[in-house]
Amino acid sequence: KRAKRDMIILSNSSKRQDNSIKMLLKLGFDPDDFSKIITSGEVSHHLLNYLASSPTMQEGISKGKEISRSAWVPSVIPSALLELSSSLTSRRAFCFGSGDGDEEYLASCGWTLADTVENADLLVARGTFVVLDANSCADKKVGEEAYWQAYHQALERAAQKGIPMVVANPDKIRPDADMSPMPGTIGVHYQQLLERNGNRDSSSLVLCIGKPFADVYEIALRDCPGKRACMVGDALETDVTGANAAGIDSVWVVNNGIHSEEIANKASDEGVQRENDSVAHLRSGCEAVLRDFNKESETTYAKGQQLSPTFVMPTFRW
Length: 318
What we know:
Strand content: 5-15%
Oligomer: single chain
Distance between the termini: 11 Å
Number of strands: 12
Radius of gyration: 21 Å
Largest sheet: 7 strands, mixed
Helix content: 40-55%
């Protein structure tokens, strides 16, 4: 800030921007210190709103008229979603939700809950706690067995029909004690089911909004001349992969992040003890974790990219 550099928050939260602003205030930060606060949920909301109103827009575009479009709508939208939006007379969504304002979120961008998954025009994955339609809600906190039954049944039926999906948070695991699943796992599972049902180009039916995918980086870097930017984050699969794909530097923050326990364990496996040499311990663990990630890169969002963070830091202090 003293050097007059823009600071941007890029979050995979499936909630809207105003929720992040509240969280920043709660943590003692001044939201005005940041030039942009971008959440996956906010970008997804702009997209869903655009899709809900786009038949009129597309008619105007086809006639050569200039139609206004939010700068936060992704620049590249899969044809399945565009075709869907141009032919819809209703806007019915089936939701894999957080259990916190899911129906209100959809209604605020022009969508209603479908009565069944078979009658849905679109799947929206924004949480891993409820499976929600207009008539029922399977809540994991109330009954985990019923939740998983509803989850698997809904995905199987949707895959048979080839219903498009928007994933409003590409994270796969939550950095908590249980490393519990996040909405990104739903997107991955659904793509596998689509392929099993004969949809070879499953990626055209599943749009993930957030890191490491290009749309949010385009929004973040739009006013950044020459893309002189650096991504700071703790996750290889989202933060570092996204920076790599965007062609910018990355700072991998390794303590108290999603890889911290794995780094400590790998260092111990290599025979390096923290109490003897904390720097060597950290280096050994980071190199081992990065090496293992790159071996499995093809099965991650990196899709075969070999990652090498520009910088590695134990902590990022404000």
